[in-house]
Specification:
The protein is mostly helical. 82% of the residues lie in helices and 0% in strands. It is built from five helices and no strands. The chain has helices spanning 6-19, 26-65, 70-98, 102-121, 125-141. The longest helix has 40 residues, at 26-65. It starts with 5 loop residues before the first helix and ends in a 5-residue tail after the last helix.
Length: 146
């Protein structure tokens, strides 16, 4: 077995915290494994479409408010870039999740990390809670991906 890199060690460390939470029933975990590739694909596509459509709004608002609200526009652009990155990671996860490969699980995990950063940057408590729920679900099904 190959030595674990620092990212794998971090993923394992975080898993220790999530292992202490109640475990979902086996049928529930198997259902999640079955639908997770499609959830990643759908939300990846929707994320990219949403980002593309918001590009027009950002160009309009940045021209309109460049002087008065530069930091708000900058925050919106950071959020947009993180959203695009998260959506791309979801799309990259699809094939690996479909084949129950660890690589697919890691891509969706990285997407959640990016979503967490985005939620923190935009000060979204709801976003942070949803990402933590996403991590809980991901760690519930991690053992299915080899």
């Amino acid at each position: 077995m190959a030595a674990k890199n620092s990212i794998d060690k971090y993923i394992d460390t975080v898993e220790d915290y999530f292992k202490k939470l109640p475990q979902l029933p086996k049928g529930g975990r198997e259902f999640i494994v079955m639908v997770l590739p499609w959830v990643a694909l759908i939300f990846g596509i929707l994320g990219l479409l949403g980002a593309i459509s918001s590009l027009g709004l950002f160009s309009y608002f940045s021209a309109m408010y460049w002087g008065a609200a530069n930091s708000i526009v900058g925050l919106g652009i950071v959020s947009l870039v993180l959203g695009i990155l998260s959506a791309l990671l979801l799309l990259m996860a699809f094939l690996g999740l479909s084949k129950k490969q660890e690589r697919g699980w890691k891509f969706i995990y990285y997407s959640e990390v990016v979503a967490l950063v985005s939620s923190i940057v935009t000060v979204s408590l709801f976003g942070v809670i949803m990402v933590l729920l996403g991590f809980y679900i991901l760690y519930q099904v991690r053992s299915y991906y080899k």
